[in-house]
Design a protein that fits this description.
2 copies of one chain form a homodimer. By secondary structure, chain A is of the alpha+beta class. The first copy, chain A, has 5 helices and 5 strands. Bound molecules: manganese (II) ion (MN) (2 copies) and zinc ion (2 copies). Chain B binds a DNA duplex (30 and 30 nucleotides) through helix 4.
DNA sequence: GATCAATCTGCAACCGTTGTCAATTGGAAA
DNA sequence: TTTCCAATTGACAACGGTTGCAGATTGATC
């Protein structure tokens, strides 16, 4: 995802208005590696802008996603996660708390294998997603009361 | 997943009742490779048992899943998909119609890479899922009206 | 067959997300 | 700067998938 300043410029070019809400969302996401849900973005932005609505957060996240500045991920944790990292990469997900970490690895040899008839099951594959699931550090060492 | 007869025996052993609804669901799933949603199982069973409720289908699918006889998959197609194939394998998913096919391939070299500090990002990984996404055969050649 | 806990059905409620629309607002034009 | 209007906002309803609930029904055991 581009910087808040670059996104501002991009939105302006597209004829979209630069609202304080949008700028706050740009800032909340920039450089973030936590893969927040829309709700998490909302809570983070709402600290400094209590009047913002969840609907506006969804709208802006969807706008960014359709511009390709953000990737919406469904990692099976209930809510969609938004990823400002648009480089090709994979993920580790904690089954207990939903924590997500980026995984950079060259899995170029992971390709859809051909059937015995030499074809790809009739599929034309456009992306390959690898998700590692397990427990994160803190969920492996649960405190007595959590 | 075991055969309907074996599942019947298994349920009996667990002290669970053998109801016509459960048997019909066992039969609908046995040998199936379509990865149906709960709704799809419901529609299939309801042909011969119109009075069955969707709630019962969910209940039985969840029971089978918690017994390990079935795997519940979240492949990002909206509804959960239920897989009677409990062997380790991967999937190809059609982005357009949601069709799912099993992929058997040895990706044992696909492992969570270690960080520069030599650790696995603090994670203890218990499973690795590979999902290939793209278009199935029929969705690559859409008819004029679909 | 009688008993009774397990199960079933129908419906309400839940969660994450999107549709709707009146009120508000950013920014181009004058 | 002021005007103007389309874009945006926020509140709330509605949606699809799933689960909670409660009363009616039924399978297993005797
Ligand atoms: Mn990521
Ligand atoms: Mn499968
Ligand atoms: Zn965790
Ligand atoms: Zn298809």
């Amino acid at each position: 995802m581009k910087s808040p300043a670059e996104l501002t410029e991009l939105f302006r070019q597209q004829g979209l208005k630069i609202t304080p809400q949008r700028v706050a969302i740009f800032q909340a996401l920039h450089g973030s590696e936590v893969h927040p849900s829309a709700e998490a973005v909302y809570e983070s932005v709402a600290v400094g802008m209590p009047s913002i609505s969840l609907r506006t957060v969804y709208q802006t996240l969807n706008d960014l996603a359709s511009m390709g500045e953000l990737v919406a991920l469904d990692l099976g944790t209930g809510a969609a996660r938004f990823d400002p990292n648009t480089d090709p990469h994979h993920h580790v997900v904690c089954d207990r708390c939903g924590k997500v970490r980026d995984i950079y690895a060259d899995f170029t040899d992971v390709r859809l294998p051909r059937s015995t008839k030499g074809e790809l099951h009739g599929f034309r594959v456009s992306s390959t997603e690898i998700v590692f699931r397990g427990l994160c550090h803190s969920c492996q060492h649960p405190g007595p009361d959590e």
